[in-house]
Amino acid sequence: MSEIVDGPKPKHAQLREILRRLAEDELAPGSPIPSERDLAERYGVSRITVRAAVGQLVAEGLLTRAKGRGTFTARRRLDAQLYLESFTDDMVHRGLTPSTDLIGCTRAVPGTATAAALDLGPQEPAFRLTRLRRADGVPLAVERGWYSPRMLPNLDRHDLAVSLYTLIADSYGVQLDHAHQTVWAEAADPDTAKLLEVRKSSPLLVFRRVASSAGRAVEDMTSWYRGDLYQVTMQLDRTVPGSGPFSAKGGTR
Predict the structure, then answer these.
(1) Residue 40 lies in domain
(2) HTH gntR-type domain: from which residue to which, for each copy (predicted)?
(3) Could you give the maximum distance between any two Cα atoms of the chain, in Å?
(4) How many domains does the chain divide into?
(5) For residue 76, is pLDDT > 90?
(6) What are the tens digits of pLDDT across the range 33-52?
(7) Do 21 and 97 fall into the same domain?
(8) 36 and 94 share a domain?
(9) CATH code, domain carrying 32
(10) pLDDT (mean) for 89-95
């Protein structure tokens, strides 16, 4: 690594660039960086200087602090795929290993918005499914979804820790072919934060997707993705109506 020298450039700025190169070029995502004490001794600077340099990189999202554990290089964010695809297929295409923790599947009467989305009658129950989705063992998303009992009878009797879209296609002959998705930001509530192994009120990206097959509603699912590991990128084209500087349209993942 480079040395820090006396000169017009502040020492904290010099150290920040050294740590930036270390995080971007030498360390794998999620790797620990040296402690404040080690960095101060290695570069002959005060711990206040170290804190300033590290703090700026944390603010940029290049480093992340874990209370009681130290400072780590941030994991690279995954781009949301703006087309209809299962989480399992999405992760496999990225070269990651997907896995699922089944939190629960029950029959319950959904709220008005979900009942309307799934075209259910008054007080008609649906399947409520909650799952934790992982990529290479790292918790990435919590899914809480409602599923039509008309389209997917006895859904709760299946192994729901597998790719749900594959299960739906293989067991019911139902191929999801259309969806409407809304995305917003939200702070993690205590239950979601615990599942995702983040602090309460950490930033999350929330996706609500209503998916159908041949015009018949099948799924109303909301997913909470870790904001430090996930992002949305969209291409905007001024030649497409409604895609001006203050509006954007995307498909579904």
Answers:
(1) 11-73
(2) 9-76
(3) 74
(4) 2
(5) no
(6) 999 999 999 999 999 999 99
(7) no
(8) no
(9) 1.10.10.10
(10) 77
